[in-house]
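Why do we bother with a discrete structure alphabet at all? Because it lets us treat a fold like text: something you can write down, compare, and reason about line by line. To make this less abstract, here is a complete entry for RRM domain-containing protein. Read it the way you would read a sentence in a foreign language you are learning: slowly, and without expecting to understand everything at once.
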Amino acid sequence: MEDMKKRKMDEGSNNGSGETSTTQDYLRSLLDPLNKPQLVDLLSRLGSQYPSIAEEIKSLASADPVHRKLFVRGLAWNTTSETLCAAFQMHGEIEEGAVIYDKATGKSRGYGFITYKHMESAQSALGAPSRLIDSRMAVCNLACEGLTGASTTPDLAQRKLYIGGLSPEISSEMLLNFFGRYGDIEEGSVAYDKDTNESRGFGFVTYKTVEAAKKAIDDPHKLFGGRTIIVKLADSHKSKTVQMQLPAPMVPLQVPMGAGGYAQPGKAPVSSGALVGYPYPQTIASYPASSYPNPPVAPAPYPTQSQIPYAPVSSKKEPLGHSPTPPVGMGGYHPYYYPKQ
């Protein structure tokens, strides 16, 4: 009897596993046509109702570091990996954090990375992407987004301002405190020299809204740090800089063109003319030595001819005075002159 009971229990367990696999296949066939928003909505509702499902979702999401790794830019040149981790450890346990340094110079490149142990810690840090680190406003976003993060929105050109004419004593923290009166700042800093770490006399401020940026530029000249500073859109300053760096203008020349597009002197041009621009100075590209074949070898010179000697000719000198012989006329006759009457 006991053997019969065990056999029935084994058969029941086998049927249960078979039914489970059949149920999973059936559920997969139902979920396969659903799009991503529908699946996200379904899992979020199930996770809120069943804690076990929520824990499974967290473990799957945190398994891939791409959802836990942050890219932090706008760091000061003196910011170290320790100070970077200290600024982000409030959101959760950090698995790895480092400032990136230039291999040749050994100096900071102004950005770094933070990798959290759990995905919810990264999401918490992204809730406040801007923060002051070593008196500079640093900004973070997911590392998989790179520089195409939240700051590269279509209205960025209307939110980012150029601040010129700053005093050398003005720090990034002072700059942010001064312009924070107009609205919430997303990113901002004074531009510092990499070698000397001294202020270059200008900086940038990016507001979270276009309205705050408009308030800041209503009065383009402001008194700050004992100096009158210039405030304008960063794009307008950039376009002016590019315009000043344009190459030399083209000199228009009226060249009459003949048939085939070439100027023919002495002939009337077929077309009315074409404006041809010549930049000054002109750069001539160097021709590689291998572009043309070597010139043919010149043929052997002709054999030299021997000089033929000629007998010297003696020049006969004419005697001075009148010729003793009378002049001979045409045909050998002597001329006859009539005496004067």
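What the structure line is telling us, in plain words: Confidence is low (pLDDT under 50) at residues 248-256, 258-262, 270-279. The domain at 154-233 is CATH 3.30.70.330 (Alpha-Beta Plaits).
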